[in-house]
Design goal:
mainly alpha, about 75% helix
C-alpha cells in the first residue's frame, strides 16, 4: 500500500488516499500508513501556519 502511494507516476495521490479511506471505512479497519501520513500532514500544516502568524500575524 505504501509503495503504491509513494511510487505513483501520474500524480493521483489524492485519489489513492480517498480510495484507501473508503476501503478502511468498508472494512472498519484503519490503515496505519494512511493515518500516519494524515497526522503528519496536519502537523506540518499547523506548524507552517504558526510560523506564518508568528512572523507577521496580518499576512495570510
Amino acid at each position: 500500500m505504501e509503495q503504491i502511494i509513494l511510487n505513483n507516476k501520474n500524480g493521483y495521490t489524492e485519489i489513492y488516499y480517498k480510495l484507501i479511506f473508503m476501503l478502511s471505512l468498508l472494512t472498519l479497519h484503519k490503515i496505519t500508513y494512511v493515518e500516519n501520513k494524515k497526522k503528519g500532514l496536519k502537523l506540518s500544516l499547523k506548524n507552517e501556519l504558526e510560523n506564518l502568524t508568528k512572523n507577521n500575524p496580518y499576512n495570510l
